[in-house]
């Protein structure tokens, strides 16, 4: 498959071209014919929350997403509301219980608001499931067709860490707004005058937090079951502050569109941010979603004006001569980055700009990263120490450090 053919319809509709995608998310060419579990990209990130009505509003009003589809009591689904939101090629599905006996209630009681399903677009659901099963994966949903007047989708699902799953979707024979059972829906929400069309265009990576000692097991799962390859490795002291540490490895699908860093806590003097997550999420789960933007400065300004809070970066970070020498020239003056707390990292391929929100939900669990890549295919390893020290200050303020 050529790299041109790997552009999804969503990406085309979001006015994303190949060069932008290479820059935004580090898309690369690869031979999918030799892949035992070909994945073409992200399909959706599915959330279960305590109040889907309000969360859907928040993602529209604060994050500039657009409501495109809905399922709920008025469409024959009496169990829950489900709002489908998009920003460029990113699709979120926000679910919240209506029926007090909905199975979503128990999931939410245990985990709070969070990501339940990282759904992936695959060209051949049956091939993937056959391979996953042969490799010992837990198949949660057997391959099956769902049909409505817009066509047919083929779906299946496998379990990953914690209560998280990967739904596998082939929607090549479907033209509806999301899935059968959903209707097209728009919202009366209007962006403010002068606001950009969208604040982010693509999903770059989704990070999973797993228990102490389990990271290599899950790296092995993605290698074996899904044919993902290892991208980068951060171990031990790479991500240690004076007090806490974590280990992280990154796996990616063939075209690098789907990247999964996996973190586990490391033994240290104090409880790491990963331990805090595992305590409050009641187990492994999705820690952060990195949203690729082509203008991180504007995105941060817009989000800040909407009340979204970011982790503060100490002034010392920007004044550090070693850092300044290492990052060299970037597209904006350091002072502009400093004003917003945007971090910079550079490697042999280029640089990236990134920033992290505070937790988005009531528990100190899931958060967003905004990332603007300029050649670098990394994850900001040079920033991990500064970042974790910032997270630890927040953790201490919450009394969990
Ligand atoms: Fe990240």
Automatic annotation (TrEMBL):
The keyword Repeat applies. InterPro entries: 4OHPhenylPyrv_dOase (IPR005956), 4OHPhenylPyrv_dOase_C (IPR041735), 4OHPhenylPyrv_dOase_N (IPR041736), Glyas_Bleomycin-R_OHBP_Dase (IPR029068), Glyas_Fos-R_dOase_dom (IPR004360), VOC_core (IPR037523). Pfam families: Glyoxalase. Its cofactor is Fe cation. The keyword Iron applies. Signal peptide: none annotated. Keywords: Dioxygenase, Iron, Metal-binding, Oxidoreductase, Repeat. GO terms for molecular function: 4-hydroxyphenylpyruvate dioxygenase activity. Its EC number is 1.13.11.27. Residues 41-171, 202-358 form the VOC domain. Belongs to the 4HPPD family. This is 4-hydroxyphenylpyruvate dioxygenase. NCBIfam families: 4HPPD.
């Amino acid at each position: 498959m050529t790299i041109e053919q790997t552009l999804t319809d969503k990406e085309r509709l979001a006015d994303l071209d190949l060069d932008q995608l290479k820059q935004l998310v580090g898309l690369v060419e690869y031979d999918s014919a030799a892949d035992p579990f070909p994945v073409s990209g992200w399909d959706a990130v599915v959330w279960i929350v305590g109040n889907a009505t309000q969360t859907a509003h928040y993602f529209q009003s604060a994050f500039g997403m657009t409501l495109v589809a809905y399922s709920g009591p008025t469409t024959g689904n009496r169990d829950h509301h489900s709002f489908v939101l998009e920003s460029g090629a990113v699709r979120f599905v926000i679910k919240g219980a209506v029926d007090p006996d909905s199975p979503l209630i128990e999931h939410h009681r245990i985990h709070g608001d969070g990501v339940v399903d990282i759904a992936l677009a695959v060209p051949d659901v049956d091939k993937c499931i056959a391979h996953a099963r042969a490799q010992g994966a837990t198949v949660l949903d057997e391959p099956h067709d769902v049909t409505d007047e817009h066509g047919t989708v083929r779906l299946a699902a496998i379990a990953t860490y914690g209560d998280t799953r990967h739904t596998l979707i082939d929607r090549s024979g479907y033209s509806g707004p999301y899935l059968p059972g959903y209707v097209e829906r728009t919202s009366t929400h209007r962006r403010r005058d002068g606001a950009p069309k969208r604040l982010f265009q693509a999903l770059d990576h989704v990070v999973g937090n797993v228990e102490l000692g389990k990271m290599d097991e899950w790296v092995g799962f993605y290698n074996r079951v899904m044919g993902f390859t290892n991208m980068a490795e951060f171990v031990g002291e790479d991500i240690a502050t004076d007090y806490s540490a974590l280990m992280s490895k990154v796996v990616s699908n063939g075209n690098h569109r789907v990247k999964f860093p996996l973190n586990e806590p490391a033994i240290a003097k104090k409880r790491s941010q990963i331990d805090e997550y595992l305590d409050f999420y009641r187990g492994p789960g999705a820690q952060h979603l990195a949203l690729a933007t082509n203008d991180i400065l504007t995105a941060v300004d817009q989000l800040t004006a909407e009340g979204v809070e970011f982790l503060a970066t100490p002034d010392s970070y920007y004044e550090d001569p070693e850092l300044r020498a290492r990052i060299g020239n970037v597209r904006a003056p350091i002072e502009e980055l400093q004003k917003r707390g945007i971090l910079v990292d550079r490697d042999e391929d280029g640089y990236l700009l990134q920033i992290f929100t505070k937790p988005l939900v009531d528990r100190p669990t899931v958060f967003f990263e905004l990332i603007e890549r300029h050649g670098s295919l990394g994850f900001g390893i040079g920033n991990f120490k500064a970042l974790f020290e910032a997270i630890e200050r927040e953790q201490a303020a919450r009394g969990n450090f």
